Amino acid sequence: MVSVLGITVPDDKPTLCFFFCTGGIFFFYLIHSYSLEWLKNAQVLHQGWFVTFVQCACYSVMSATDRLLRGAGPRKATLQDYMKIGFLQVMTLSLTNFSTQYLNFPTQMLFKSSKLIPVMAVNEIYFRRRGKLDEYFAAFLLVAGLVLFTLEDSKVHPEFNYTGVVIVSGALLADALIGSVQEEILKNRGTSSDEMVLYSHMMGGAYVLVLALGTGQMQVGVAKCAASPELVAYLFVYSVVGFLGISFVMAMIRRFGCVIAVTVTSTRKALSIMLSYLLYPKPFSARYGFAMAVFSLGIVADVVAKNHAAKVAWLRLWGAVKGCVLQGSLGPLILYC
Questions:
Q1: How big is the chain by its Cα radius of gyration, in Å?
Q2: CB 241 within 8 A of CB 28
């Protein structure tokens, strides 16, 4: 059973469940991406601690309301657990917000889509888990796509700054660490995903509130909001649709698993990049397209590496295509279909 926003879809309708979750992910995260780029153009992301605090506050309030309405049970994990996750959560959100000062939206989105790279690094260095050959191949394609896109971006955009690459890489590393810590807590404490969202963002909000007040960004951010109702609206929408998007992603993971969820969210990010060029016109070149194609192949390779059924299907398709080439006919491909 899939249940989001009070709407429940029964398990005996898997196609409807899939399109319900996919539609929610695409709808809310595309609005989230549009709002993020508007905030970047409005220069409010220079107050990154303030924006992160607003996000954490909205996520906490909405998650607490959701748990209250559903009658969720008491907290299972310790506050120390959530202090660790909250710190990493703040690093991910705030560094992502700060990176937009130096990178355009498509470049930032590509980096955020390459989570496989830091995850493999964390597993190799911290957990001593060696990756598979096909995972290394996927990581190579992702790195190649990122390098090509970044090099072209530095040529096309005179204001390009490699500081943004360093900052967004830090956000990726924190995001990879979050996954490992969350997995450990979910296994050892038996906690739920909605509990984790609530308490991790509450702890993160407490951290970032101190930073926002200490750096003066809270005062500047509040003053900007007081002077611009439009800014308040975009901040509110940006935070709310982010939480709703997370809710649909979690529902997708619970019903269909991580591999399908990653495929859907990666496709959504690719669409966000295309819409960015349409809604916020910016220079584009053929090299951008080639770099994005290489990066997309890396995402496909990552999904195939994690899913045995997908791997078998791709090998069968490759065998059919090779048979067509060798035999000079479409017979093998017709048999495959």
A1: 21
A2: yes
**CA 253, chain centre distance (Å):** 14
Going through 176-307 in order, the beta strands assigned E by DSSP cover none
Contacts of 36 (CB under 8 A, 6+ apart): 100, 105, 238
Give the Cβ contact number of residue 116 at 10 Å.
Answer: 25
Please write the tens of the pLDDT for every residue from 156-193: 665 667 788 888 888 888 877 776 777 677 667 777 77
DSSP 23-68: HHHHHHHHHHHHHHHHHHHTTGGGSHHHHHHHHHHHHHHHHHHHHH
What pLDDT does residue 52 have?
Answer: 85
Span between the terminal Cα atoms of the chain, in Å = 32
Give the integer Cα–Cα distance in Å for 89 and 255.
Answer: 25
pLDDT tens digits for 236-261?
999 999 888 888 877 777 777 665 67
Nearest to 97 by CA among 255, 184, 211, 248: 211
SS3 158: coil
Give residue 324's pLDDT.
Answer: 55
d(CA 77, CA 88): 17
Point out which residues pair with 7 in neighbouring strands: 4
Cβ atoms of 171 and 99 within 8 Å: the answer is yes
Q: What is the pTM of this model?
A: 0.70
CA distance 59 to 64: 8
Distance between CA atoms of residues 1 and 14, nearest Å? 9
User: What confidence tens digit (pLDDT) does each residue in 319-332 have?
Assistant: 655 555 555 554 44
